[in-house]
Amino acid sequence: MGDQGERHASRPLRWPRMKLTGERPIEGSTPDSLIALHEAGYREVAVRLGAGIVLDVGSGLGDATSTMAAPGRFVIGIDYDSDTAVSAQGNFGAANHMGFASMDGSKIAVKDHSIDYVCSSHVIEHFTQPETHVAELARVVAHDGAVFVLCPNAPADFENPFHVYDFEPPQLESILKLFFEEVEVLGLEGDEVLRADFAKRRASGDRLLKLDIFKLRKRLPQKTYVWIYERVLPIVYKFLGSGTTGIGSGIDHTHLFISDTVTTTTPVLFAIARRPRARLAS
Predict the structure, then answer these.
(1) N or C terminus: fewer CB in 10 A for the chain?
(2) Digit-coded pLDDT (tens) for 90-143
(3) Inter-CA distances, 66 with 104, 254, 259, Å
(4) If residue 19 lies in a helix (H) or strand (E), which one and from where to where?
């Protein structure tokens, strides 16, 4: 994992043309602290992995997924977008003995209990029926394996129309316990520097949201709100500048750590689920 840069130094990475939508973190376009949240989450998953097969649900461009590669381990990344999965395979697949494919997180095309470790990072909040996603995680993981689920902590999350289901610790624990016998919910906590960045960006965002006096965005169909959000967000970031958006702040994953205590300001929930429950016969 430590020689990731050396592995790709001899050839340029080829990315699909990705635009800033607020859904996928993009280096140079997404606030550094949000990218740091994702990197820190994968860091904490990676240190808890052993040898075996690892499935990363929602692998995106594959750069974070590749950090889980190690001797004795085969990593499979899946993403709902086929072009993104193809690009990830070209950039990381062959060099790291990894594989990427396009799949739906609620219909994962692998055999029952065939995966040793499953990572679902910032995916569950995008499902209108998140139980379908959790059921699939429980179906594919080995009986003695582990599932890692990361998502925003609802009280600390920013408004984002892509997030259709918000979780607090009791809610995340409850839905996971429907399908797993053993569940632990921790917090991915930020230090004072990260907290200050979040507070600054939240204050700026709140000022902008107050311009929508009649909360018209809440009355729009979600697809319409998402369409507007995708187009307005890049303009807002450009207008505000890096000093407010946090792009180029230099904040990285070292500003986050795992905590047993989750407060209303803890940015991310980090759940570990083991021992999948037997499925009821249909």
Answers:
(1) C
(2) 989 876 779 999 999 999 999 999 999 999 999 999 898 999 999 999 999 999
(3) 20, 18, 25
(4) none
Name 212's bridge partners.
Answer: none
pLDDT computed for residue 216 by the predictor: 74
155: Cβ contacts below 8 Å, ≥ 6 apart? 168, 264, 265
Instruction: Extract the tokens encoding 175.
Output: 């839905």
- Euclidean distance between CA atoms 34 and 137, whole angstroms: 25
Q: Domain spans of the chain?
A: 30-276
Q: Are 245 and 31 in contact (CB under 8 A)?
A: yes
Residue 209: φ, ψ to 5° = -65, -30
CA distance 195 to 279: 41
User: Residue for token digits 């095309």?
Assistant: 109
Cβ proximity of 269 and 187 under 8 Å: yes
Cα gap 157→217, rounded to integer Å = 17
Predicted model pTM: 0.85
Residue 69: burial class (beta carbons within 10 Å; 0-12, 13-18, 19+):
buried
CA distance 275 to 127: 23
